[in-house]
Amino acid sequence: MELSDSKRVTLEDVAQLARVSAQTVSRVVNDHPYVSDNTRQRVLEAIRTLDYRPNRAARSLVTQRSYMVGIITFGFLHYGPAQMVTHIERTAKARGYGVAFSTIDQMSRDAIRDAIDVLGDRSIDGLVLITPTMGVSHAELVQVCDRVPFVQIDIELGTQAPSVVIDQWHGSQLVTQHLIDLGHRDICEISGPLNWYGAHARHQSWLATLQAAGTEPGMSVEGDWTAQSGYNGIHNLLTHGARFSALVAANDQMALGAMRALRVHHLHIPEDVSVVGFDDIPEAAYFEPPLTTVRQDFTALGEQSIEYLVDLLNDPDTPDHQRVLYPKFIERSSTRQIE
């Protein structure tokens, strides 16, 4: 189906491509529950293909909604939060919502309140809060958001708040157990910043997995998610006399820096030291050697966060709960069996 650049895509165009009625398209755009999954997927695919943008102004006159979602994020320069924002925005637009952003450089009640004040000028319907570090309680967020529905992302596992998380504990367990199964017993760690919920969970899981296997944890040093901190972490470990045949890096960027530092010290990967990371960034498969790691499904995270927020907008009595996604182990050639 071809449309000239000057023609605005209409709801009827979407209906024609999806082979459904205009009323069905309207139901999908407005998140009406009585649409089959197959039909909904066809309509959403047609929306993406045609780059259909619902007339939010007209819809808001009828529904008293702005069809705008606010995203507040901390740590946007890091891979994880940046991916979360990208996929949240993509899902929101596919569901007919506009998106307004605000980034904060510290995790505090005042910083979040200021961000909400800025977003308030856009008449947002709800909020997605990417709050990966400690410092602001759920009760404080309820007060700051002042009746605006919100969903949190990347918070502590087990929190009974409207939230969507990826199980960081499970991911760290997967890579640590992989090293144990390969016969490694001297395993050190470069953790992420331990005031981040994810970094803390990965560190505690590393400790618990080794202890459950009857293995004494090796030395751990704290990084800041950057390749530079991974590089410095190796120098720190070796300077303090740490002996290890395997290294758990809390993300792929730190693993990259660590691998470089190991080579500077004339240590080969994986012959001398096996290395694992976390995230499965696009470049991880092209490290030398390709990195064994854990893949986080940021697409599903974005989809689930918007779906949950839409549920809250459509039904304020939706129970508070936490949706949990699970990472996937990716084995490559940066690890090897101990002979």
Written account of the structure:
The chain is an alpha/beta fold and 339 residues long. It contains twelve helices and twelve strands. It has helices spanning 11-18, 22-29, 37-50, 56-63, 79-94, 109-120, 138-145, 168-181, 197-212, 227-239, 252-264, 298-314; strands at 68-74, 98-104, 126-130, 150-153, 163-166, 187-191, 220-222, 246-249, 274-276, 293-295, 322-325, 328-330. Strands 2-1-3-4-5-11 form a six-stranded parallel beta sheet, with helices on both faces. A four-stranded parallel beta sheet has the order 7-6-8-9, sandwiched between helices. Strands 10-12 form a two-stranded antiparallel sheet. Strand 6, helix 9 and strand 7 (220-222) form a beta-alpha-beta unit. The longest helix is centred in the C-terminal third of the chain and has 17 residues, at 298-314.
List the helices and strands and how they pair.
Blueprint: H1 11-18, H2 22-29, H3 37-50, H4 56-63, E1 68-74, H5 79-94, E2 98-104, H6 109-120, E3 126-130, H7 138-145, E4 150-153, E5 163-166, H8 168-181, E6 187-191, H9 197-212, E7 220-222, H10 227-239, E8 246-249, H11 252-264, E9 274-276, E10 293-295, H12 298-314, E11 322-325, E12 328-330
Parallel strand pairs: 1-2, 1-3, 3-4, 4-5, 5-11, 6-7, 6-8, 8-9
Antiparallel strand pairs: 10-12
Helix pairs in contact: 1-2, 1-3, 5-12, 6-7, 8-9, 10-11
> How confident overall, as mean pLDDT?
89
Strand order of the largest sheet: 2-1-3-4-5-11
What is the beta-strand fraction? 15-25%
| Radius of gyration using CA atoms only | 23 Å
Shape: elongated
Straight-line distance between termini: 61 Å
Helix content class: 40-55%
Oligomeric state, counting identical vs distinct chains? single chain
Per DSSP, the total helix count is: 12
Q: What characterizes the major β-sheet? A: 6 strands, parallel
Number of strands: 12
Order of helices and strands: HHHHEHEHEHEEHEHEHEHEEHEE
What structural class do helix, strand and pairing data support? alpha/beta
